[in-house]
């Protein structure tokens, strides 16, 4: 595979990945409270890193086609494992932080409705 | 060669990680800091994958996998600590 | 047992490098998988060595869900959040949605799907009424129906894990 064709595949993948990761970082400053920030960071960084993993995957598959070296199969497999691990752990970690934040008394700012706090007040100590 | 794409991406993500550091230091509440830490961990994993391509070493991807798992465990521990240790 | 199978397969995947796998590696994988399964047995109380209701149809459904509706929703969610980061247009709130899911697996799958799909983030679970507290970044209705929050995902979660 020619280097230029590879460039045409890699450049968009990495550009999307980097752009979404930066948006995730910027979201930390744009939004007013923990929950909205979490929207930005969890989704954007997971998605961006997924695309970066796709880029690395494409690169190692391209190298594999060019050289036939078994090392690049390993590389591609490990990148795939890393992407899956990240996809599963980030969403679960976000639940954990959101739940802990609400239970430790950090309420959502600018919220129009907070059913969880209402229900907790009704039911006494949750 | 296309490797320069990966090294530039890693550099830009490094700048983004420094940006996140501001929220980590100055976040008004503790959950804010945890969210910033989580973001930084994800960025670190992304940078490790990129640098693995740049330096052509599979070991760095393995490190990234372990780092992702460890950061997940750390996040869960901090979350449990914030809840007050009682759970449920 | 799920933990055992998952850890053995992951270990072999990380060890495999294109050629045949050495027997020693398989032994290590099985031993490590056994240790992990023993360590995690309190989470999987009463589970047999092989999931009772395992079927390839459900696995196929899960994979189809992952690459079909879920991938589309993930894509839309990221465009949505990206636009909100740029425009700063938010109207946040925490709402309660009924899940109508019986199994814990189905509820977990649904909660994770909600977190990664447009504008919503699962905050807490009410175990008794099986409903989810969802942080919604642009609230249009304080007590929404389930379709408004997660569309067809409830149906999918039920079909995958029922």
Residue-averaged pLDDT of chain B: 85
Which protein chains are joined by the largest interface, and how many residues does each one contribute? Answer: A-B, 52 and 47 residues
* Alpha-beta classification of chain B: mainly alpha
Quaternary state reads heterotrimer
Distance between the termini of chain B: 53 Å
The biggest sheet of chain B amounts to:
none
Task: Based on the model shown, name its key terms.
heterotrimer; A: 126 residues; mainly alpha; 0% strand; elongated; B: 88 residues; 3 helices; flat
Word description of this protein:
The complex is a heterotrimer of chains A (126), B (88) and C (162). Chain A contains 4 helices and no strands. By secondary structure, chain A is an all-alpha fold. In chain A, 54% of the residues are buried. Chain B is flat and about 50 Å long. In chain B, 47% of the residues are buried. Chain C is mainly alpha-helical. Chain C is elongated. The model of chain C has no long low-confidence stretch (mean pLDDT 74). Chains A and B meet through helix 1, helix 2 and helix 3 of A and helix 1, helix 2 and helix 3 of B.
Brief description of this entry?
The complex is a heterotrimer of chains A (about 130), B (about 90) and C (about 160). With about 130 residues, chain A is mostly helical.
């Amino acid at each position: 595979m020619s280097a230029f064709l590879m460039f045409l595949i890699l450049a968009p993948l990495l550009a999307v990945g980097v752009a979404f990761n930066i948006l995730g970082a910027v979201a930390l400053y744009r939004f007013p409270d923990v929950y909205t920030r979490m929207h930005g960071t969890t989704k954007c960084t997971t998605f961006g890193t997924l695309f970066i993993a796709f880029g690395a995957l494409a690169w190692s598959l391209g190298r594999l086609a060019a050289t036939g070296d078994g090392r690049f199969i390993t590389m591609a497999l490990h990148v795939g494992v890393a992407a899956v691990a990240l996809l599963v752990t980030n969403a679960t970690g976000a639940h954990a932080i959101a739940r802990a934040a609400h239970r430790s008394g950090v309420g959502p700012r600018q919220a129009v409705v907070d059913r969880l706090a209402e229900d907790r007040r009704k039911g006494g100590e949750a | 060669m296309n490797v320069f794409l990966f090294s530039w991406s890693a550099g830009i993500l490094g700048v983004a990680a420094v940006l996140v550091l501001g929220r980590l230091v100055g976040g008004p509440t503790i959950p804010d800091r945890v969210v910033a830490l989580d973001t930084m961990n994800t960025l670190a994993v992304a940078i490790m994958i990129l640098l693995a391509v740049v330096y052509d070493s599979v070991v760095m991807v393995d490190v990234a996998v372990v780092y992702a798992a460890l950061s997940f465990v750390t996040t869960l521990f901090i979350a449990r600590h914030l809840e007050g240790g009682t759970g449920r | 047992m799920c933990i055992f199978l998952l850890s053995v397969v992951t270990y072999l995947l990380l060890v495999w490098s294109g050629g045949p796998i050495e027997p020693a590696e398989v032994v290590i994988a099985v031993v490590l998988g056994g240790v992990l399964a023993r360590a995690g047995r309190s989470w999987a109380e009463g589970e047999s060595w092989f999931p009772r209701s395992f079927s390839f149809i459900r696995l196929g459904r899960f994979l189809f869900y992952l690459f079909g509706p879920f991938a589309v929703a993930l894509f839309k969610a990221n465009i949505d959040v990206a636009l909100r980061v740029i425009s700063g247009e938010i109207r946040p709130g925490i709402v309660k949605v009924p899940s109508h899911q019986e199994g814990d697996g189905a509820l977990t799958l649904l909660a994770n799907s909600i977190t990664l799909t447009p504008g919503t983030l699962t905050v807490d679970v009410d175990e008794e009424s099986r409903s989810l507290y969802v942080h919604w970044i642009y609230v249009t209705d304080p007590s929404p129906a389930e379709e408004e929050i997660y569309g067809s995902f409830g149906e999918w979660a039920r079909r995958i894990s029922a």
